[in-house]
Amino acid sequence: MANGSRQAAWEFFGAELKRRREDAGITQVELGTRVFVSGGYIGQFEQAIRKPQLDVAQRIDETLQTGGIFERLWKKLIKDQPYEEYFAQVVELERLATEFHEFAPTVLPGLLQTSEYARALFLASNPFATDEYIEELVRGRMDRTRLLKGAARPLYWAVLHETTLRIPVGGPAVMAGELDHIASLTRRREVVVQVLPFAAGPHPRMGKMMKLMSFEDTPPTVYTEGVLSGSLLDEPAVVRRAWASYDHIRAVALSPEASLALIESAAEDFRRCASTT
Question: No. of H helices and E strands in the chain?
């Protein structure tokens, strides 16, 4: 399903939600209270600005007694996404975020990836996939990177563990290009990047990625990922703990200036390696 068609389908979801809610004589605030979200969230669902999670869609069905229509619509729309089901909601939230703060322990964040780097990752995860499938995945990832382009781009700050700079994803030439890309974004002051060096030793998020997202008029969220699974969390106490661990990591990382020098040095190392192979 193309992006325009998918958005139109979500708009239908929202219009149908509004119609069913009004037919039941329930306000946005009342429905929100019954399904454990704010009334503002219900309004954003109805305007197709924000997409509900599956459990919220299921509770809406129960509250409005709709026979499971919103659960079925949700599953159909998520299935048509070029992303894993557990990540599709994150992609929707990325489009609304005003700030991103990421920690990457082993793999460079998707929003910073080049198509060559992304392709190498997808091939490693899908060794028997067709070229068409791999290219669909790459296009989906590159679509996400457009968030960091233009005057209205969100604030983006990433802490990369030095491991991410040293694993030769796609080979030396691909890594040199990837690190050059990050250095270029940094030099243009489109992103802020810090590197957590090996010398920093243990830290609060050992081996665990973390994406913190802030929004203009809704509470912040944190996303973490495991093996074929992801958790999108917005409980305030949990988000505060995540921010505290991120601040700890950022405090012991190299400065942005020293980080840029290390990224450029690593790129040059890969470039030399590529020229001798």
Answer: 12, 6
